[in-house]
Amino acid sequence: MAQEWSDYRDLQQRLAAGSAGASELEQALTGWFKRRIVVLPNSHATGDQSIRDMVNATPPGLDTHMMGMQNIKGTGLDFIYRWQAWDRHYQDGQQLLADDPARALAAARSLAAVEDFGWLDFDYMTPLLTRAAELPGNQTQAIQSELALIRSQLDQCCERLQRADATKRESSRGERLIDALEAVLDAGAAVRRRKRVGQIYRDLAGQRISHERAALELKQINRSQKGGWLKERLLRGGSGSG
User: Fold this and answer.
1) What is the structure's pLDDT at 241?
2) Residue range(s) defining the domain that contains residue 29
3) Assessment of whether the complete model's pTM goes beyond 0.85
4) DSSP-derived 3-state class of residue 157
5) Which of 1, 89, 106, 160 is 20 to 30 A off residue 183, Cα-Cα?
6) SS3 assignment, position 215
7) Is 68 a domain residue?
8) Terminal alpha carbon distance of the chain
């Protein structure tokens, strides 16, 4: 940004002096415009990874316009899921500040069950939890316990995302080999995905897992159909299903 400002001032002076014309102006404007287009090349990126890349590419204080250029599945679908999750977490977060302890407790329990906090949540939830914990109406053991659990979940999710980002940067050399191996293994993985979906629905019907956990598992399975499931499993240290 500092370099662009310097280039702009230089061009402005040259245009005023007559030493630069329309072609120089067009060239400068074209260059500045192209620098603002950032293509995310990883078609297997998660929604959180896409959000992180967008944040990193946006200077402080500026807005980013995002344009989807692929089918809404895989990366695109998970990107939408992240914003839907953010909306739920935001609404529950506001209820933590309610004057009614029953509403605050219900919201706290809902947030404590979340297992997929993302980059959109951390800056919002961290100060909000501190504020909620200090409210007079929230000074019950039940609410305070749920707030502590939410903090723990936030810390774990943040650590997991940071670890995944670091591992992603370090493992870029082997991505082609992993993609080739995934293509060979994908037929068997499709069968396992189908069986896994059936098991999730049975567990949900038997009340062995929560709706939140079932939705998270199904979203992961849906995303894996797009590709990149083997890479994601390796990043998680071998856990999960293809």
Assistant:
1) 47
2) 2-57
3) no
4) helix
5) 160
6) helix
7) no
8) 43
